[in-house]
(S)-N-methylcoclaurine 3'-hydroxylase isozyme 2
Amino acid sequence: MDVIINVENCYLLLLLALIVSIPACLFFLVRLREAIHSSRRLPPSAYAWQVVCNMSMSPLGSLANLAQIYGPIFSLRVGALLIIVASSPKTAMEILKARYHMFSGRYIPSLYYRIPRMEQSSVLGAKECNDGWKYMRAMCHNWLLSVKAIKLRNEVRERKMMELADYLHAKEGEIVTIRDVVFATLANSMGNMMVSRDLIDLERECKSGNQSLMGFIGAMLTVLGSPSLVDLFPILNGLLGFWERRKAKKLHQEFKSLWEEVIEERRQAKCTGEEPSQDLLDALIDNGFCNDKICALLMEMLVAGTFISCSTIEWLMVELIKNQGVLHKLRNEIENTGDGDIKNASSRHMPYLKACLKETLRLHPPKLFVLPRRALETCTVNNYVIPKDSVILINIWALGRDPMTWDEPLKFKPKRFLESQLELKGNVQFEFIPFGGGRRMCPGFNVATTHIQGIVALLVHCFDWFLPEGINPDNLNMTEKFGTTVYMKEPLSLIPRSRIP
Ligand code: HEM
């Protein structure tokens, strides 16, 4: 009797095991089939070692270069991340326009979101285009980035430009690092547009090489652009998560020390009924933002609004030094418009200045890739499967150097833009997209062009520029330093001589 019961139990157990395991097996087989099927149709795959072991460039730089081997779209598996790199106008158009809703997600390394309140107040880092993103983007547009907001702050921006001119007049005959003076001017201009206050002392900061604020913004950009080991191998989260949290806390403390005092002062001024400054900070306080959220947003705007424009101006200046014909033509245009008054140069019609800016952004895009996008759903591009959550990089660098689009692509020829219909944004064929495209396109376009055109017009109109002894335009070091932003490896140093009192 006992034996019979045991055998029955065994049968029952076996039956149960079968019932449980059949669906599990089926599920496993389906997933396996899906995985094999989709991996077969993934874009051609490059090897991670080709990127990491490229000794002459950083991983980002070599990733941009791999387009020459693998063509318009390829994939790369690095740890848990599947990266898709698109390098032709057609693929860029398919991703940013035809399937924009699928690719409107953003991929930002996890450390960024560990900074308190960053995720809730970020425009740039918003994981998708949700209501929070819309709200923050609209706030920034209304109070900082729109043409109307920029016009409201014309006077203070022009004052910052004049301070730059005064500083350079005083430095006549001395070597000046262009990056430092331009960065300081941009930071103060952004500071005044956001919180009605200077952020750094031009004189003092240029002496110390802007290490404090510039170094900090550089660190933020690295966080934005470099996935950590935890991103690549999430299994390490338990082990390294602590270290990431500590790093995020340190960054948070640093930007609190930059903004908290001005926020508190403004809150107090509001209590005592002082006249409002009507800037972004006022708007954020009036809309009930807490200090952490305000700090996070101000920091993001400062990071986005200084480094990239600074690098663009440095590249433009070095190209002008190397191409004296272009410099003279540009100077003529500035002198012949608005009676040589450069105060509101950025708002005047100066097609050659604009062409110089476009040509600089084509040949030396400060961002090699459109800020990484994330696939919100599995979909297809060029008949290849792009799995959900893939990281999408659109290779602006390769687009700007494609010989199919550009005649003599490696030459600096602003004239090409005078003869073409290509604009800085909104080009239908997507062959030139320095500000990205679609819903997540750069909202700082107006601020960037106003700053860059204004500062370049001032530098070109008010000063003659000479290279330090022993350097001539032909042996100038044009090596790029690839990172989240592409910089000149050796900062451009020039000697100013005043042309206009
Ligand atoms: C030469 C100057 C600049 C260049 C070349 C540039 C380029 C870009 C690019 C390529 C993107 C990604 C767009 C996409 O995903 O399609 C971007 C995003 C962004 N940029 Fe700029 N940018 C510049 C200046 C600025 C300035 C001055 C600001 C603000 C003051 C700014 C704020 C932003 C923000 C907030 C985003 C994120 C938008 C979103 O995700 O919704 N940028 N920029």
